[in-house]
Amino acid sequence: MPTIATSSTRPHFKIGRDREGHWIAVETHGRGGGYFRSRDDALHYARAEAGLGAVTFSDRPLALRLS
Fold it and tell me: Quick one: pLDDT band at residue 53, thresholds 50, 70, 90?
């Protein structure tokens, strides 16, 4: 039987800049993300990972934890 993804298990990404001005995409549960050359590159990655409706933009600086 296929499993139905819920909003708590489906990935959701925030896109924005870090404090140094680099573009990043961060999965809200800390399971993925990265640094990107441009806003468009970050958006392309996040949409490929999570889908069209699971990406939002942040007005605040974001941080990507690499641990």
Answer: confident
Residue appearing with tokens 């999965």: 27
59: its two tokens: 């007005």
Counting beta carbons within 10 angstroms of the beta carbon of residue 25, is it exposed (0 to 12), middle (13 to 18) or buried (19 or more)? buried
| Strand stretches in the chain, DSSP E | 13-17, 23-27, 33-36, 55-57
Closest CA to 28 of 16, 36, 44, 19: 16
Contacts of 32-36 spanning 24+ positions with Cβ under 8 A: 33/64, 34/64, 35/64
The model's pTM: 0.80
If you compute the radius of gyration of the chain from its CA atoms, what whole number of angstroms results? 12
